[in-house]
Amino acid sequence: MSGERLSAPPARTLPRRLSAAEVAAYTSVADVLCGGLRPAPSELPSFPELLHQALRLRGESFDAVVRLLAEAPPEALEAWLRRLHDERPGEFEPLSSVAAGAYLMEPRIRAVIGYPVQERDRPGVEEAADDLAGLLEI
To answer: Taking the model in full, what pTM does it have?
Structure first.
C-alpha cells in the first residue's frame, strides 16, 4: 500500500469556504446537537476551522449542508433538527456527522469525554509474516 488511509475518505476541495453566517448557523446547530456538553462548539475558537476540515471529508454533501443551513430557523433550532432527523434522515446524517466530527477533532473535547487518540497499530515482524503466509496460501 502507498500510505493510503483506508479508515477515512480522502479530503476533498470544497467549492468555497462557508460564509461567516453559515459558520454561525452551523455552530448553533452543533451546540444543539451536543446537548449541553462543555465546552460547547461555540466556546471553541478552533471550531470554525474544524468544521471546514470535517466538511472536506464529507465534500459530496457540501451543497446539501449549505441548503440546510439556509433553512435552519435560529429561533426554533432544536425542534427543526428533531423534525429533520425524523422526516429527512438522509439530510440530517451529513449535517450532524460533520458537526460531530468537527467537535471530536478538538483535542480538549477528546480529553473531556475520554475519546482515545487513534494511532496506527503496526504489526510486529512475526504477525506480519504470518499474515503474508496466510495470504500466499490462497
So the answer is: 0.72
